[in-house]
Write a structure and sequence with these properties.
single chain, 11 helices, globular
């Protein structure tokens, strides 16, 4: 990309599809995911509580007013620490492994395969691994946010309490539902993004390389926001179930038995509690994640994602 090759790159030239390139993409995932997920903690807090108990607040605004009046700004951002740590780890795996698997599947193993299938396979493989790192922190976050009084007040307290009571395995009891939520979400996020970005450049009638870095990252934001809307719809029922499982799974109860019991209580309509909030949250979140991730790649002298 001419606009970045003409300036001095901060860490020298990074060759595509090398270990250094994949590590750089993983670092970009941390920068993109950790801060953005943390920034929307107030939305996530209210969403999780309303998923578990739809009657707890009449609206998002009333929820924030109530929480702020009782606990101040700290209460509004309650659960930020496990969110930041967990989604930083997840971001590293999601983006770093996606770039690796996209190269492995698309260029090495199945070079003649449809690119959308490559994007779907690469994103599913990446998320499978990324969720293993995310799961214990997600479990602590949900328990902290959905229990009143809180299960724990800090990440350290929550971790110690959970491990002492259930062992490390207790923090992974939501892994299958997390995979059920996150893998379709990420497949939708990456495949829709890649296709949307390509469509935008086709609509503009010029090749991607003819636009400068700022313009390309603007396309990344728009493509990411559109992808986020689809992600919210596809993954929302599983998201509700993850919140319910972490808040209401009984001792010794199997995952399938718990899912069956909870579904019996809330029914199909209950799986869609908080969808509007999640669409707003994920559209904004996904748009800014792609903006930050591709801006980081431009900073390093790498091409932005998609549009090839």
């Amino acid at each position: 990309m001419a606009v970045v090759s003409e300036r001095k790159l901060p860490f020298g030239k990074i060759e595509p599809n090398t270990s250094r390139y994949f590590y750089s993409c993983a670092l970009g995932g941390i920068v993109a995911c950790g801060p953005t997920h943390t920034a929307i903690t107030p939305l996530d807090l209210v969403k999780c509580r309303r998923q578990v108990d739809p009657s707890i607040y009449s609206s998002n605004m009333s929820a924030w007013r109530s929480i702020f009046a009782k606990e101040g700004i700290r209460g509004v951002f309650f659960g930020w620490a496990p969110t930041f740590v967990g989604y930083s780890f997840q971001g590293a795996g999601k983006y770093g492994f996606y770039e690796y698997f996209k190269y492995l599947y698309g260029d090495q193993m199945f070079p003649s395969t449809n690119r959308t299938l490559v994007h779907l396979g690469a994103s599913a493989s990446a998320e499978f691994l990324a969720d293993i790192a995310l799961c214990p922190f997600e479990a602590i976050k949900v328990r902290m946010q959905t229990s009143l009084p809180p299960y724990a007040h800090t990440l350290r307290e929550g971790w110690s309490k959970a491990v002492a009571k259930e062992g490390l395995g207790g923090l992974y009891k939501g892994l299958y539902p997390l995979w059920a939520r996150q893998i379709p979400y990420t497949m939708t996020k990456f495949a829709t993004f890649e296709e949307t970005v390509s469509m935008i450049y086709r609509t503009l009638g010029r090749p991607k390389e003819s636009f400068n870095g700022l313009q390309q990252t603007g396309v990344s934001f728009l493509g990411g926001y559109i992808a986020g809307i689809f992600c919210a719809i596809v993954s929302h029922p599983a998201d509700v179930m993850v919140s319910k499982l972490n808040a209401d799974r009984q001792a010794g109860e199997s995952a399938m038995k718990a899912v069956s019991r909870i579904y019996g209580n809330i029914g199909f309509p209950g799986l869609w509690n908080g969808l509007t909030t999640r669409i707003i949250m994920l559209g904004t979140l996904t748009g800014f994640q792609w903006l930050i991730y591709d801006s980081f790649k431009v900073f390093l002298g790498l091409p932005t994602t998609g549009g090839h």
